[in-house]
Design a protein that fits this description.
By secondary structure, this protein is α/β, with parallel strands linked by helices. The chain is built from 25 helices and 17 strands. The strands form three sheets. The protein has an eight-stranded mixed barrel. The longest helix is centred in the N-terminal third of the chain and has 56 residues, at 182-237.
């Protein structure tokens, strides 16, 4: 016999204590207790049925030999008790027990097994006073087979099996040995040996059962741990490591699942993209560590929004995805609430930082019926918010759809366009005051597509930037502009506009400098115009590229001055040689505020020894006012609209007015705003 760790104990006291605890079912593990009850639920009912049938068979044998009170009167309550226990076990088959309840039931079963065994063995001995050797042998056989059947049925509860065997076999061993006959002695020896074998088989089976349950438990524990780790890995794979918000992968999977869920009902919902305004400036000014802290603060504010039917994920950088399952007509107001809350100041260490947030929304199914369509169109709506009114929410509409189709047509035509054939570079003079002489020209791109006709620079430049074609366009147009300026007198300069993509690309800057070198033109004749917005998008990369241009001898001008976020700051940070005051201030020069801005900027440039060009001069009164303010350079339709190179060249060759170009008539000085490259 093997009582598990019982025989590993070192002292008799330890062995005794453990045996007592084992026999009282105090050492049982919860999983094994539950498994024992489950097995006994299927084995004890047949056991009780076996006991009842064998007892009835013995009583039938003694029906005419023993008194009725013994065969019927005594046996009936014993059978009733046995039947009651059988019914109890049958009813408990589908009852879920706790480990504590299972242990209590096992203890009760062991005790009742001993009681039932004692009752039946006492009754069987009472019958031995009647009948002959045949009847007595029958009772002995019935009792022996019954007890062996009981032992095997109780093998999952060895305490009960041992107790039953001791209660039944011990009296019969004593009885057989007391007869002092060889036959009875042989029966006693046989019974004893069989009992030992049965006990050995019992404990082998029990140990195998316990080991199996332990293995299953360990396997289940490992499986649970594996599932936990898989679940944790799944969570981590869907979580942004910095902000602890759901990530891009989760966002798109969530939309996919929801689209599948509403495939039949077509219940509307909203997808959105939120982008932080001026975040890159914070990154560039205070460093990436502060930028990361700001993103964590933004995420914390998002997690505390407490808006129903809303889930927000970080898509990457300073961009967040929004999934709103509430009423579509409330999506815009919910998104605006988010933007407004994100615009409140953040306390990062000892600094108070304020940024903005813009949002684009696309509604299912109007804006699209796939994840790609909904995201793409919400991103397009976001682009509209950022280029019109930052901090606002734009809902994708039919107008946007028409614009997208138009943009796609332009994009397709632009991809196929031969720049040297379809594009022209027009030149507009920059005039020095008070002499009113031309010092140079700003190059402006014009495109006439064979399929689409004339495309406004406002449109095709925006499409080129969004589709990644702007750098190719910049390089080829710059080569055309340098060809033209090389054919003009050496004292005339060329101003050429660069986009945000250009000034953040070392490769593009390298190609521009190579064009200057190949044309053998003095780099000092080239002025590259940039906007503050283009610098904000990627300050560190832009600063590197601008310094490379400046080190090569080129000049830099800050265009559209006064319309940016903090233009004065960039005058100190960047190697700027010239400032171009935006035309919006000149159009309202009579206004005290606009006039004051122009006066202040002119004074600032004189103090910093920076050249200043006023754009958008359209009439003589504006020119006179600027001359009174001692403005050094002007540009506008008053002097000349952007013209093809051939016309500029002819005018320079045939006229002496303003170093070759006559003033435009007053009735032709109507303002025509055109975007430039």
């Amino acid at each position: 016999m093997n009582f598990h760790p019982y025989f590993k104990m070192q002292t008799i006291v330890e062995k005794s204590r453990y045996f007592i605890r084992w026999f009282l079912i105090d050492t049982l593990e919860p999983e094994i207790a539950l498994a024992k009850c489950k097995e006994l639920n299927s084995q004890i009912p047949p056991l009780y049925l076996l006991i009842i049938l064998n007892a009835v068979a013995a009583a039938y044998t003694y029906r005419d030999l023993a008194p009725a009170y013994l065969t019927i009167g005594t046996l009936t309550p014993i059978l009733a008790f046995t039947a009651l226990r059988l019914t109890s076990w049958v009813r408990s088959r589908h009852i879920e027990l706790t480990p504590q309840q299972a242990i209590r039931k096992l203890r009760q079963t062991a005790v009742l097994a001993g009681v039932v065994a004692a009752l039946y063995v006492s009754w069987s001995f009472a019958l031995k006073s009647y009948g002959g050797i045949t009847e007595q042998s029958h009772v002995a056989i019935v009792i022996t087979t019954t007890v062996f059947g009981c032992v095997f049925c109780l093998m999952h509860l060895p305490q009960a099996a041992i107790l039953v065997m001791l209660i039944v076999t011990a009296p019969y061993l004593v009885f057989f040995l007391s007869k002092n006959q060889e036959v009875y002695a042989a029966i006693a020896l046989n019974l004893f040996l069989v009992s030992l074998v049965i006990l050995k088989v019992l404990f082998n089976s029990y140990n195998a059962f316990v080991n199996l349950i332990k293995s299953r438990t360990e396997l289940a524990t490992k499986h649970q741990e594996t599932e936990r780790l898989n679940s944790e890995n799944e969570r981590l794979s869907h979580t942004d490591f910095l902000t602890d918000l759901p990530n891009r992968r989760y966002f798109f999977k969530k939309i996919d699942k929801h689209l599948e869920a509403v495939k039949d009902s077509r219940e509307p919902f909203t997808v959105g993209v939120i982008d932080l305004d001026h975040f890159k400036q914070v990154n560039d000014t205070y460093g990436h560590k502060t930028g990361d802290q700001l993103l964590v603060a933004v995420a914390s504010r998002i997690q505390n929004l407490d808006l129903p039917d809303l889930e927000i994920c970080r898509l990457g950088g300073d961009e967040f995805g929004l999934l709103f399952l509430g009423a579509p007509n409330t999506a815009a107001s919910v998104a605006q609430t988010i933007c407004d809350r994100l615009q409140r100041p953040y306390q990062i260490g000892e600094m108070s930082i304020t940024i903005g947030a813009s949002c684009g929304l696309a509604k299912f199914p109007e804006a699209g019926e796939t994840t790609h369509e909904l995201f793409d169109r919400s991103d397009y709506a976001l682009y509209n918010s950022k280029t019109t009114v930052r901090g606002s929410v734009t809902v994708y509409s039919a107008d946007h759809e028409a614009k997208i189709r138009s943009d796609r047509a332009i994009e397709s035509a632009l991809q196929r366009a031969d720049v040297y054939v379809q594009f022209q570079v027009h030149l507009q003079p920059i005039v020095a005051l008070p002499d009113r002489t031309i010092t140079g020209f700003e190059a402006l791109a014009r495109w006439t597509s064979p399929e689409l006709g004339q495309i406004s620079p406002d449109v095709f430049i925006q499409v080129a930037e969004r589709t990644g074609q702007i750098q190719r366009l910049t390089v080829q147009l710059f080569a055309m502009a340098v060809d033209q300026i090389s054919a003009l007198p050496d004292n005339l300069r060329l101003s050429f506009n660069l986009s945000a993509h250009d000034i953040s690309s070392p490769e593009t800057v390298g190609r521009l400098l190579k064009i200057i070198k190949n044309h053998h033109i003095d780099p000092a004749r080239i002025t590259f115009e940039i906007t503050e917005t283009s610098v904000i998008d990627s300050y560190e990369a832009a600063e590197t590229c601008l310094n490379k241009l400046r080190d090569a001898g080129c000049r830099l001008a800050l265009d559209d001055f006064g319309t940016g976020y903090s233009s004065l700051g960039y005058l100190h940070k960047l190697p700027i040689d010239c400032v171009k005051i935006d035309r919006s201030f000149i159009a309202n020069l009579d206004d005290p505020i606009s006039g004051g801005v122009v006066t202040s900027v002119l004074n600032l440039c004189r103090t910093m020894q920076i050249a200043c060009v006023v754009e958008g001069v359209e009439n003589l009164s504006q020119l006179d006012a600027l001359e009174e303010l001692h403005c050094p350079f002007v540009q506008g339709y008053l002097f000349c609209p952007p013209m093809p190179f051939d016309e500029i060249s002819e005018s320079l060759a045939s006229s002496e007015a303003i170093a070759g170009l006559p003033l435009a008539p007053k009735n032709e000085t109507k303002h025509h705003h055109q975007a430039a490259i």
